[in-house]
User: Fold this.
Amino acid sequence: MGDVQRQRPYVPARTLDTEFPLIDSDPHFRRVLRYARREDYAVGAATAAAAPSFMLVWERFAPSYVGKGGFAPIMRLTGVIGITAGFLQFYNRSIFRFYGFSENQREREMDMREMVDKVKRNEPLYGKSTLSPYMQGVASRNSRYAGVWLHIIPWFNFVNHEQHGVDTAKYYQQAERELEAERTKAL
Assistant:
């Protein structure tokens, strides 16, 4: 009786009705950074520079008269806040494409290429994990669609797991087609 293992239920990822196709409902942190576009970097940099720039302009038009010793710590704090806001804006723009909230054709092509290459190399699609399947599920449920609430609480996925809300059969089918094309081309 003590050796009986209970099977925990699988909780599938919720599928949202979006204008563009879902790529991944819980992308890994590094993957979100890798798939970012130049525009994301530009918007993030502009957001990061906005707060310190605003403080400088504000000081020029309505001086605080605290002197250099009092203004420098405020500028450092404003710089840190600006950099944090810039990074979150950059990350948000990139992760929204994974969710299908904004145009994601480039990311879909990158995703297909990356996953098909992994299938051809016989690697796990979403990386290897040292966590138990149960803990992978917990991590997935905690960070799934977390980018939607990034402005409330920054929460990122640092765990490799297999629960991403997409049918992975498309990667295997595409790999089969490519391998078949390579085989017939070699003949």
